[in-house]
Amino acid sequence: MELALAVALLLCVVAGCRKDKDGEAPVITILAPGAGAQLQVPGEVTVRAAVSDERQVVQVRFTVLDPQGIPVATVPAVAVDAPAAEVERSLALANEALRSGTYQILVSATDGTNETRAFRALTVVEAPLRLRAVHVVSAVGGQTAVLRIDSTGIAAPFATLDQDVGQAVLCSGSRTLVIAGDVSGPVTALDAELGAVRWQLPNTNALGGTFFTGLDRLDADRLVVARANGLLSVHAAANGAGHFTAAAMDGRYPRRHALLGDRLLSEQPLVAGNGRLLAIYTAYTGELLAQRPLDLVVAGFSALDDDRVLLFGERDGDGVVRELNVELGGGWEPQVLVGQPVQCMVSAPGQVAFLGTSAGLLRYTYGTNTLVPVVAGAAVPAVARDAVTGAVYIAVPGQVQRVDGGSGAVLQSWPVAGEVVAVLPFFNREP
Predict the structure, then answer these.
(1) How far apart are CA 391 and CA 361, in angstroms?
(2) Counting beta carbons within 10 angstroms of the beta carbon of residue 338, is it exposed (0 to 12), middle (13 to 18) or buried (19 or more)?
(3) Among 295, 240, 296, 300, which Cα is nearest to 422's?
(4) For residue 378, what are the CA distances in angstroms to 129, 319, 375, 395, 397?
């Protein structure tokens, strides 16, 4: 009897000391901003939320997520330690690389055991496009020199690399300037603002001749590196992380590349001989889909839609403009420039392309199938376009010139040493 009484007393004590399980999560009400809020980058949004809990709210966090759910702005967690409170914080969206879209404000609250999340849509309007600089990449005596022309037109040396150079591209969104070596040099990625090396890919040349046969931007975040050993690899521009590696067709090497919808186009010449073809891969896995015959050296691509592309280049000393239906394989040749091989090109709005040839700069308009001389005389081995003003930058012997894309008038010029490999506009965000 005494034993039973002792057990009963013990159970009462334990039951009295046991805390009820906390099964209730905090409640969040976002008070500001209201529905339909909009923010222009750069800017900040003030978020105010009411939080409560049947016991106490420990802390609250504020975050802005981009359309892919990636955090783009946050502040330190706010300690509350009370049953109810109103909490307000401002979050800055200062990165001008952010694009327009529907973002989400995320407010999360915890009571130490349970967490609640609340969301509020935020329409983000991207920053106005601005030209920050133009980088001119040149081969100078076995080294690579980069000249930086700022937005006011002042030129100054930016970087010198102890390597040879074949090609270069620039990704404004990740602020990355990528330079591919030729025979011996590596692929070197520089911070386009500071000049510091971000990442490299080694040159493993064992055959002599050009090793890195191609370097092309695919989109805002990815680029493709082509090699004489037949491999092409797609990388993140910001850190060099590999997405996938694919192989060229037997007996060929990859050279010039572009995206067309969800397909990766790859110009592939024969290692021995003059024949070439266009290989078509999936854009995100590198699976080979098809191949099309090709009889020109490609200088560049310009998409017409998800199935049709314009190819610009050279065949037997003549410039060629070719339209190709990638899906069906048919097409036609709108223009042949007798004795003027196309060496480089850049696209412009309205299905317009500026073509650098052995005899100057031309403007091609697909809708009217017309070619108009813009700058005549010297060969143009590199061309670029300012997406803000429409001005065109061209390399000519000993100079880089900024010219009016309509009249061809030279607006400004800068002396450049060595052989210009690329002229690369650097914007505050991707155009």
Answers:
(1) 13
(2) exposed
(3) 300
(4) 32, 16, 8, 9, 7
Burial of 237 (0-12, 13-18, 19+ CB in 10 A): buried
Question: How many helices (H) and strands (E) would you count in the chain?
Answer: 1, 35
Provide CATH code, domain 22-125. Answer: 2.60.40.2550
Q: Please enumerate in sequence order all residues whose Cβ is within 8 A of that of 386, keeping only pairs 6 or more positions apart, or say none.
A: 131, 134, 392, 393, 402, 425
pLDDT surpasses 50 at 13: no
- The pLDDT value recorded for residue 23 is 76
CA 329, distance to chain mean position in Å, is 29
Give whole-number Cα distances, 327 to 77, 114, 308, 324, 331, in Å.
52, 53, 8, 9, 11
Could you report the per-residue pLDDT of 391-415, keeping only the tens digit for each? 999 999 999 999 999 999 999 999 9
In the DSSP assignment, the letter for residue 250 is: T
Is the separation of the CB atoms in 14 and 6 below 8 Å?
Answer: no
Q: Confirm whether pTM is higher than 0.85.
A: yes
* C-alpha 160 chain-centroid distance: 24
Four-way CATH pick for 131-427: 2.130.10.10, 3.40.1280.10, 1.20.1740.10, 2.40.50.140 = 2.130.10.10
DSSP 8-state class, residue 339: T
Cβ partners under 8 Å of residue 226, min gap 6: 212, 213, 214, 215, 216, 232, 253, 254, 255, 257, 266
Nearest CA-CA partner of 182 in 421, 423, 427: 421
Whether residue 81 is predicted with pLDDT greater than 60 in this model: the reply is yes
